[in-house]
Automatic annotation (TrEMBL):
<dbReference type="Pfam" id="PF03070">
    <property type="entry name" value="TENA_THI-4"/>
</dbReference>
<feature type="domain" description="Thiaminase-2/PQQC">
    <location>
        <begin position="14"/>
        <end position="214"/>
    </location>
</feature>
<dbReference type="GO" id="GO:0005829">
    <property type="term" value="C:cytosol"/>
</dbReference>
<dbReference type="InterPro" id="IPR016084">
    <property type="entry name" value="Haem_Oase-like_multi-hlx"/>
</dbReference>
<dbReference type="InterPro" id="IPR050967">
    <property type="entry name" value="Thiamine_Salvage_TenA"/>
</dbReference>
<protein>
    <recommendedName>
        <fullName>Thiaminase-2/PQQC domain-containing protein</fullName>
    </recommendedName>
</protein>
<dbReference type="InterPro" id="IPR004305">
    <property type="entry name" value="Thiaminase-2/PQQC"/>
</dbReference>
Length: 217
């Protein structure tokens, strides 16, 4: 098993719990209340700002051009595919990114984003990677599960969101980033691996709580 295989395995129970959340189940069926969905999109939009800051800190701490380019590549994705879908949903709710700036973070969002910034400021590149990867890989996992359980979701209002995280291009991005993590964490000590696994699991727990927040829990 690779480094990331082990790391993911140790947090997979949290990803499975997230995929079972009523919010995603109702989204998959196309029956999710739109106000609840819009509230989620707003909090997710707020979260993305901090997510980008964590990657920016990864760029700042990078010592090679290759590392800088890897962290910078995420900024392009958020500005293009993911951002286009999110902005479309915000528009349907009569909002723009400027409006999002005026909205307060809910507790689960506060805890998650504070964790991201703290990790980005205090840790090295492997630590930063373990803090941000559960969002990237976890989204692919939960939405693939949603699509597998409810293939009809692609014909619903929520289809574009599901498509963003289940298409071949996103799958390839996740594969490349997982390989990058394996390379950056290769040869770490047993003690350091345990520390990195704990960071990854804590981030995965924040992911679960974010989905619970989306569902009003």
């Amino acid at each position: 098993m690779s480094f990331m295989d082990d790391i993911i395995r140790d947090s997979l129970d949290l990803w499975k719990a997230a995929a079972d959340e009523p919010f995603l189940e109702e989204l998959g069926k196309g029956t999710l209340d739109k106000k609840m969905f819009y509230d989620y999109i707003v909090q997710d939009s707020i979260y993305l700002r901090y997510y980008l800051k964590a990657f920016a800190m990864g760029m700042f701490k990078s010592e090679t051009l290759k590392d800088m380019q890897f962290f910078y590549s995420v900024l392009g994705y958020v500005n293009d595919s993911e951002n286009a879908t999110r902005l479309s949903y915000l528009k349907d709710n009569g909002m723009t990114d400027d409006d999002v700036e005026t909205i307060e973070r809910l507790p689960a969002c506060v805890n998650y984003t504070d964790f991201l910034i703290k990790s980005a400021e205090s840790d090295d590149l492997p630590g930063i990677l373990m803090a941000v990867m559960p969002c990237m890989l976890g989204y692919e996992y939960v939405f693939k599960e949603t699509l597998k359980r409810h293939p009809e979701v692609m014909d619903t209002y929520y289809g574009p969101l599901v498509s963003d995280y289940t298409n071949k291009w996103y799958d390839e991005c996740c594969r490349i980033w997982t390989e990058y993590c394996n390379n950056k964490c290769e040869g770490v000590s047993v003690e350091r691996k345990k520390q990195l696994s704990d960071i990854f699991r804590e981030a995965s727990l924040h992911e679960l709580k974010f989905w619970q927040m989306a569902g009003g829990r």
